[in-house]
């Protein structure tokens, strides 16, 4: 393995390949102090983790490394309100979001409160009929059911009218949310959100599921101080759910998030949650869980419930202790996920065609809209357009005189702020989000004005001369070097995701052998080079792209790819997940 020579000018996807550099003396020091291989040491140093940090990075995960939730404004107030309700046996209502972060947050609260003797009343809004977040009708249902305290999780920080309605009814509301807050906050008894302007905790990258875990941990301690006796789950056992929401909501996996995800994966490996076990069985997972399993195996199945089915199923599979029911719901989610994939393919094909016709490669923001697009898949389609065009994307479904939209972005370009400002400017009826993602609704006749507004907002925030998109590489490997041993050792530096991306290496002058289209537009092949090494490789959703075309031709190319280790019928094997292709350097 080496750091690699000068990068190609441009790859087939239009990106410039750049190599991380690693000082040889620092690499040698890391090897001496940690005992890791030269390959892992070079990777760590290239990522800016030097000899004085390497050991701590490799062994992160101690309980003391997670933050004290009391630093977050209103968390202690929320704990006191919940503890009062539990001790006095008052009815608690929970309103969660229908995505993975919302379901994982809600499931934590449900599992804990139920064990503490407080059976909560739960409501998950329907994406199509109710839309995102609290509504006045949901507040009325809680009030009619005798609920004395409502907790909104992964939503609520911009729900001014519904929370004002609750205040008018004398119904206190706790908001646990991580989405961008406005200067003015809604009427609530407590707003636990490190992204409110007056919060100084420095924990703004935590997701709602992470915030909920901190809340549950503090509540567990408070109930213990009050002498309540109950058989509650150890908060540690709920870290699998906190990690699930953290990874699926694309939180950066560094700092507290990395520690939480690491410990959550350990909890997941112990198999304490029947629903997560059942989903793994349905997906045929055999290997130890990694962060990418959360994002690409568990997440899509849970999201499928909220996107194209009953949103309560995503919560149900995570909160049930009934093994038989967990299996039944997991099978239903598997079927819903297949339906979601079919709908997604249809909407994506139409959206991509419209984006290309509108010159998506030359726009600051790709904005498309279509009649009849299923609102449950527009967020996924927006993510795929971001991958295709390497710029923020907004996908809107027209519904008569209205639109429902989802926006996705990439590192360094905030899309949540522009959506909020569009709502404040009267171009949307509702909307909010965070830097990487946002959702909204509005009138169809304002779509063109909205597209112009978002384009201007993103343009104003970008440098006058935008740098070309880059792909950072951790070095160069021969095909024979992409082994199970290397892939397994690199996992020690994980978990990998946003903020700590999977190691990516260049493979120079390789031959794609036996390339063919498999599954949903993927290209599978063997990579071979002059070292006589061969390894299975796959380029996801690439069959209709220049990358897929180059692989299918079978001529020598340079490949950028990630090493993944999987288990098949009890045997481990390494394969390369192709991220990019470039013309051979020589």
- What is CATH's topology name of the largest domain? inorganic pyrophosphatase (n-terminal core)
CATH architecture title of the largest domain = Alpha-Beta Complex
Count, helices: 19
Low-pLDDT ranges: none
Quantity of strands, as a count:
17
Number of domains: 3
How far the N terminus sits from the C terminus, by CA atoms, comes to 19 Å
Q: Which class do the helix and strand fractions yield?
A: alpha/beta
Task: Give, in spatial order, the strands making up the sheet with the most strands.
Answer: 3-2-4-5-6
Q: How large is the share of residues in beta strands?
A: 15-25%
**Could you report the average pLDDT, rounded to the nearest whole number?**
93
Shape: globular
Residue share in helices? 40-55%
Rg for CA atoms: 24 Å
CATH class bucket of the largest domain = Alpha Beta
> Quick one: biggest sheet?
5 strands, parallel
Walk me through this protein's architecture.
- There is one protein chain.
- By secondary structure, the protein is of the alpha/beta class.
- It folds into 3 domains: about 15-20 and about 475-580, OB fold (Dihydrolipoamide Acetyltransferase, E2P) (Beta Barrel); about 65-330, inorganic pyrophosphatase (n-terminal core) (Alpha-Beta Complex), CATH 3.90.1640.30; about 360-460, Roll (Diaminopimelate Epimerase, Chain A, domain 1).
- The protein has helices at about 25-35, 40-45, 55-60, 75-85, 100-115, 135-145, 160-170, 210-225, 240-250, 255-270, 275-285, 290-310, 310-320, 325-355, 380-390, 415-425, 445-460, 485-490, 545-555, and strands spanning about 15-20, 90-95, 120-125, 150-155, 175, 190, 365-370, 395-400, 400-410, 430-435, 435-445, 470-475, 505-520, 520-530, 535-540, 555-570, 570-580.
- Strands 3-2-4-5-6 form a 5-stranded parallel beta sheet, with helices on both faces.
């Amino acid at each position: 393995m080496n750091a690699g020579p000068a990068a190609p000018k441009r790859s087939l996807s239009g990106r410039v390949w750049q190599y991380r550099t690693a000082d040889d003396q620092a690499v040698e020091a890391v090897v001496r102090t940690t005992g890791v291989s030269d390959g892992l040491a070079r990777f760590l140093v290239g990522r800016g983790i030097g000899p004085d940090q390497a050991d701590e990075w490799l062994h992160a995960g101690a309980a003391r490394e997670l933050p004290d939730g009391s630093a977050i404004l209103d968390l202690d107030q929320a704990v006191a309100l919940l503890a009062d309700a539990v001790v006095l046996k008052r009815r608690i209502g929970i309103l969660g979001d229908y995505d993975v972060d919302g379901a994982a947050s809600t499931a934590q609260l449900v599992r804990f409160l139920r064990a503490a003797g407080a059976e909560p009343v739960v409501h998950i809004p329907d994406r199509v009929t109710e839309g995102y977040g609290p509504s006045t009708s949901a507040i009325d249902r809680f009030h009619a059911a005798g609920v004395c305290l409502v907790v909104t999780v992964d939503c609520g920080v911009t729900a001014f009218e519904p929370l004002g309605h609750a205040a008018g009814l004398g119904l206190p509301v706790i908001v646990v949310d991580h989405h961008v807050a406005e200067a003015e906050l809604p009427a609530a008894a407590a707003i636990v959100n490190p992204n409110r302007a007056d919060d100084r905790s420095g924990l703004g990258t935590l997701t709602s599921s992470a915030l909920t875990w901190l809340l549950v941990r503090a509540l567990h301690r408070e109930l213990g101080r009050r002498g309540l006796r109950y058989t509650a789950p150890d908060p540690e056992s709920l870290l699998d759910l906190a990690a699930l929401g953290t990874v699926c909501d694309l939180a950066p996996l560094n700092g507290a998030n990395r520690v939480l995800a690491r410990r959550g994966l350990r909890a997941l490996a112990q198999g304490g949650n029947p629903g997560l076990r059942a989903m793994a069985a349905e997906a045929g997972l055999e290997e130890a869980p990694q962060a990418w399993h959360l994002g690409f195996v568990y997440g899509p199945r849970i999201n499928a419930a909220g996107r194209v089915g009953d949103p309560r199923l995503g919560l149900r599979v995570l909160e049930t202790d009934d093994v038989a029911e967990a299996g039944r719901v997991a099978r239903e989610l598997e079927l819903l996920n297949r339906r979601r994939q079919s709908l997604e393919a249809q909407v994506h094909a139409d959206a991509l065609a419209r984006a290309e016709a509108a010159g998506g490669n030359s726009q600051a923001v790709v904005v498309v809209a279509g009649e009849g697009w299923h609102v449950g898949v527009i967020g996924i389609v927006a993510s795929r357009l971001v991958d295709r065009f390497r710029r923020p994307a907004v996908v809107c479904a027209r519904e008569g005189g209205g639109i429902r939209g989802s926006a996705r972005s990439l590192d360094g370009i905030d899309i949540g702020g522009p959506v909020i400002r569009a709502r404040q400017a009267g171009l949307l009826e509702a909307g909010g989000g965070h830097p990487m993602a946002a959702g909204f609704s509005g009138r169809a006749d304002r779509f063109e004005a909205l597209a112009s507004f978002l384009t201007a907002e993103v343009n104003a925030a970008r440098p006058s001369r935008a740098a070309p998109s880059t792909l950072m590489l951790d070095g160069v490997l021969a095909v024979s070097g992409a082994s199970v041993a290397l892939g397994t050792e690199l996992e020690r530096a994980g978990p990998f995701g946003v903020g700590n991306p999977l190691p990516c290496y260049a493979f120079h002058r390789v031959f794609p052998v036996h390339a063919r289209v498999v599954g949903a537009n993927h290209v599978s092949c063997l990579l071979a080079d002059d070292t006589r090494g061969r390894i299975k490789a796959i380029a996801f959703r690439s069959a209709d792209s220049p990358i897929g075309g180059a692989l299918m031709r079978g001529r020598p190319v340079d490949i950028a790819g990630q090493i993944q280790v999987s288990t098949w019928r009890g045997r481990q094997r390494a394969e390369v997940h192709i991220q990019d292709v470039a013309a051979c350097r020589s």
